[in-house]
Amino acid sequence: MVKERRKSIPLSTRVDKKTKEIILKIAEKEDKYPSTVVSEAIERHLERMGWRIPVENIQFGSTQHYAIIAPTEHGKTVLVKEYVIPLFQGKKRILVVDKHQEYPFDSLPVEMYDTLSAGSSETLRLTENLMLKPKIDEMCKSIIDTLKNKNENIAIHPAIPDIGVQNIFFTEFFKRLCMIRWNPKLLMIVEEAQYYDCRSLISVARHYNIQTFLISTQPLDTTVMDNCKLILGPVSPFGLMMHNVDDIGVSAVGALEQFEFLWEKQKAMWRKMHFIPSWQRKT
Length: 283
Description:
Blueprint: H1 2-8, H2 17-30, H3 34-48, E1 66-69, H4 76-88, E2 93-97, E3 106-111, H5 122-149, E4 154-159, H6 163-177, E5 186-190, H7 199-203, E6 210-216, H8 222-226, E7 229-232, H9 237-241, H10 247-252, E8 260-266, E9 269-274
Parallel strand pairs: 1-6, 1-7, 2-4, 2-5, 3-4, 5-6
Antiparallel strand pairs: 7-8, 8-9
Helix pairs in contact: 2-3, 5-6
């Protein structure tokens, strides 16, 4: 009865007979008014063209990796602390690489004051890397033993002034982390991920019960971004284009305000979210 009544309702949009037949078939199949079918088709077209992006709160999956890319003080860490951590607290163990000590977890300092020679030859760089290897091996083993023997959430606080040494250390540490099947599962949060090679955390971590959130002020390695769901603030459109972000995402980020993010619901299907930090909410 309902479907018959809906068939009789005229379309307000003037369309040819064939198109009208298609719309009526869809309306009957989905149990909708024909006008609703037309309206939804227009909305989908506007979204694909980037003219309208629906507002919707982020829906975090329990296995998907995420890359949160936005300028300094846009609200990346606040988003993680107020949305991500409460969602997974008690369900997964949390490990953070937290250079600025912004997370209230058990502190695990990592100090390394070695330096690499600036502008050195390939041979010298290889020699320096080999010299660092025993110390890095020992430090990685110590951290992983601590993780195995403690059940608390942990924040690694690196004090490694040389960026080159920092990158070498964490590249190796991330690889070692992905050689163990963690139980309970591990939520890995990497602040300032632009300074590290995070490919191992994205390519194989899921097989070892590790879910990763990468937080960065800049677009990351293309392989990393292709295998993460993206959460974007107003970063450089050119940088996003260089890393295969589609035109809709590129065109929409420029208008985002503080605490506003564009996020991928599905590949090339964008949603916008504006969240209010706890200190701005009315009690």
